[in-house]
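Hi Q.,

Before the meeting this afternoon, I wanted you to have the flavin mononucleotide prediction in hand. No need to reply - just skim if you have a minute. The sequence and ligand are here:
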Amino acid sequence: MNDTSEDIRIAVILGTTRPGNYTSKAVALVVDELQANGIAVDTFDPAEMPLLSPGAVGDNLGPERLREMVKSASGVILSTPEYHGGISSTIKLVIENLGFPSVLAGKPVALLGVAAGRIGAIKSLEQLRSICSHVGSIVLPGPVSVAGVRQVFDEDGRCLDGEAEKQIRSVATKMVDYVRQSVCPAQCLEVLVRAS
Ligand SMILES: Cc1cc2nc3c(=O)[nH]c(=O)nc-3n(C[C@H](O)[C@H](O)[C@H](O)COP(=O)(O)O)c2cc1C
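Predicted structure with the ligand bound:
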């Protein structure tokens, strides 16, 4: 990454509400990497901002906050734990709360999957990629799967594995590089063309 273009805003979404979850430990590294590079970050934790099932009525602020966060983001990072060989119901609910048609359409999206098992979060990442493509987002290549996460982090969230940490942080750098190289130049060009 370089130091230009600080108008970038990235939304980072946690895909679980499980108390003591490890996905948030990996997400914390992604957020740290973004902030260390001067990027504005909005985080969404569905445990703090409950969502609604499709068609349900309620006065929760979660759905509106989530949609506004995604709308104003230059890019979105979605995380999911691997639960029963697939994505969490929480990350699916997040996507369902993003509207139909979805405010994810046209957004660059990077994916992070976290699993206790040695195979990693391959299945959930495949499912998440498919759903994100279906709603029209631009899914960045190189999703990151964290395998054996309970050996990668201690209970306090300290990362014990340098190589895994590098991989997790790369979710942030790949997103920012993509936005800088492919989204911002296009926006700048549009401003120039409209002004001429
Ligand atoms: C309902 C449930 C289903 C799970 N299924 C799997 C699984 O299929 N494969 C796997 O590797 N780990 C599985 N796990 C373990 C999670 O991957 C593990 O908890 C990991 O830490 C990531 O989830 P977390 O963010 O909730 O901690 C499951 C955990 C739960 C709670």
